[in-house]
Amino acid sequence: MRGAAARRFLLAPLAAASLSATTPPAAAGAATAAPAPTAWAATAAPVPAGSATGSAATADVEAAACPSPGSCVGVGYYRTSSGPAAYGPLVERYTSAGWSDLAAPLPPDAATGTHEYGDLDAVSCASPSWCVAAGTYAGTTGRHFGLLEVVSGSTVAAAEAPEPPGAGTGTDQSAGIESVACPTAGACTAVGYYEDDQGRQGGLIDTLAATAWSAAAAPEPAGAGSGTSRYAAMSSVSCPSADWCAAAGTYGVAAGGTAGFVVTLSGATWVATAAPGPGPGTSGYGAVRSVSCAAPGECAAVGEYTDATGHDHGLVTSLSAAVWTVSAAPEPPGAGSGTDGYAGLGSVSCPATASCVAVGTYEDSTGQDLGLVETGSGTQWAPAPAPEPSGAATGTAGASALRSVSCAAPGACASAGVFASATHRTLAMVDTLSAGSWAAAGTPEPAGAGESKKQSSSLDTVACVGGGCVAGGSYQTTAGGTQGLLETEGMTPSGYLEAASDGGIFAYTVPFLGSEGGKTLVAPVVASAADTLTGGYYEAAADGGVFAFTAPFLGSMGGKPLVKPIVGMAFDTRTGGYYEVASDGGIFAFTAPFLGSEGGKPLVAPIVGMAFDPATGGYYEVASDGGIFAFTAPFLGSEGGKTLDKPVVGMAYDSLTGGYYEVASDGGLFAFTAPFLGSEGGKTLVAPVVGMGYDWGTGGYDEVAADGGIFAFTAPFLGSEGGKTLDKPVVTVAVG
Length: 736
What we know:
This protein is mostly beta strands.
């Protein structure tokens, strides 16, 4: 830390001086107006039984991850009792039942009683049922160690983070983990810091392979300090694949001061690259705080540096074509200049190559602190002041900062932080990006939140997936304590829709945004998909034509020669794109990545549908004999090669377990890793089942019949077309 300007940005609360408390065109006929954003809902983070209460209560949610819609994990710390102060690691899980606390143990050598201390600063989830959380804990000798917690289902297992050879063993030495990335279960990279026997700090890299963690010292750039001037720490890591990562941090320069740096892993070798402030005359201070990689070799990292005049600037360094390029982050019109001005970036999210958003704070020419949003990639970034909620203080009394950003897909992001209200309180703030515009969303407080000038709330983290976001932080209560704060948005589907072969749409609870019903079609509609990022939906016809309603039209196979007709489609919640699949297994990808297909291969039975796996970014094809073909997504079994009473007609992915389902025309349901909740198999049906949909808000599913009948299992029944006269049969159901 250097001074007041740096502390304004780097400390989690805003400075006391500032605040009182610590597209392509849509298809013809498609609707174009974006739906209103879903409201955020607040809840107190549940804590273990026996935790401190009243004015002694202390808890904070510092990091979150959402591997799939309706499945998230938040981590932080809490005070373990109302007696002598002791703190333990906090792990929260979000499912269809809401938020619940998972008991998080400490390693066997952890201190107990008044010396107990555990704190989780980071979490990464490779699947809905497998995550790693990381932070720091105190040992029996008083020394601090890195903490690693593996979350498997509802069980949490703790381990001490290993340290490299030469790490200190005395009571004054310490280590900690600041960030973790797990591209697949059993393959993780965690980064942080450690101290040697002389108390000199170095960057720490821990790697998980299967069940074993190993440690390495982070390499440092040429010109790094040595001996008593040695200093390095890693603050962020991003791993788009199991054998490729980038990590960011800060190191001491031999000539004096600090600078940001990045290290990249390709194969088994880490390579360090300096990321100093751009241009001549920098004053010897810099740091890189956050890194995000959309793909191996495609990354952006952000932080800050000080120029020769003492002005703090935001720093951006981008990796492309194996070269890191450093540039100053531009500042909005009206930004301050000279020694009194400052800007800094603390979080970046890159959902796709050449599509990144970074957030932080800056000071304008009047001395007001404002949240900062930077959008772009490489050296091309566009700055904007972060919008503030209604009720924000204005003029020199105003202040805001953004601490975290997460983008579920390009153009669909949320950022979290704090702002000063006109009533002189510090309050949590969320800004969301939708339809090309940022807007401040209201962030309610839980029941029992304090309302005096000295009682505040704040958000430190946000995590988004196609289907919603969660944000975490803390708030002060009327009793004078501090509780963990959890905010959720869009994590429950609003309903479902049925699509008929003539393009007619029947919407239940979800808004009706238009349809192809009553229009002349070249080929019948065969599939539909909900766009959980925009609230819109798609229909796909057998000739590959796609019809978009409120959702963006990204292309189609309509009017192009096909070997076999289209039979299904899926929405990619990671990229905002979509897929079409043909009966021969051919896959057609629009904005979404092509990962392979069964097209051109001999099949025992035709393909009848597909499903997207948001946890891996992969997808599945399913054939009428029950065969499953997995691309990047894990193969968990199938009905292929077995005797079926009736052919399989569709499938669905279970975002809470990472499993999937197949459904047959007689309503028979086959579950793989996902729970079997019932079916229409063996019952007399008025019309055959034609498909199914997964309800990621409840963990249940729906079967839909050709007459429009809906059969709901654990999922809510919201109505159907069953028993009504239809112009054409229903062909699919989509939950959104």
